[in-house]
Amino acid sequence: MKNETIRIGQTTIDFLLEAADTNGSLAMFEFGVPAGAKVPLPHSHEHYDETIYGLKGVITFTVEGKTIDIAAGETCFIPRGAIHGFNNIKQEDAKALAVITPALIGPNFFIECAEIVNVDGPPNVEKLKLVMAKYGLVPAIPKM
């Protein structure tokens, strides 16, 4: 699976380390977010932490309501249970490194999401929520 780019809409994911590579201690992937790209629903993780390291451009994360711009060389720690999401609101494409500890998520999650998102027309949000739940992600659906 390594070296195979996964595309979910406009976002790309390239796994560098999976659970099998690290005895389950961490997973690591690069993700690219073009300027103005549609991005995943805000969510939280029940059983793992996520650390983001900026590689190129600026990705704007919102963690528990606080906005954090992550540029190249900057970091952000997202503890389990924290509601977060991200956008690229700048004019330049962005790329970041994500480290998941422990390695409870891997390429299969993103492949399953891609199968739902990469269709003609709007994605089936209910199917997406089921895949998220299967991998320990809790969508944070805004109250209407």
Automatic annotation (TrEMBL):
Database matches in InterPro entries:
Cupin_2 (IPR013096), QDO-like (IPR053146), RmlC-like_jellyroll (IPR014710), RmlC_Cupin_sf (IPR011051)
Q: Which Gene3D superfamilies match?
A: Jelly Rolls
Q: For the Cupin type-2 domain, which residue ranges apply? A: 31-99
Its recorded name reads Cupin
- Source organism per UniProt: Flavobacterium gilvum
Organism classification: Bacteria, Pseudomonadati, Bacteroidota, Flavobacteriia, Flavobacteriales
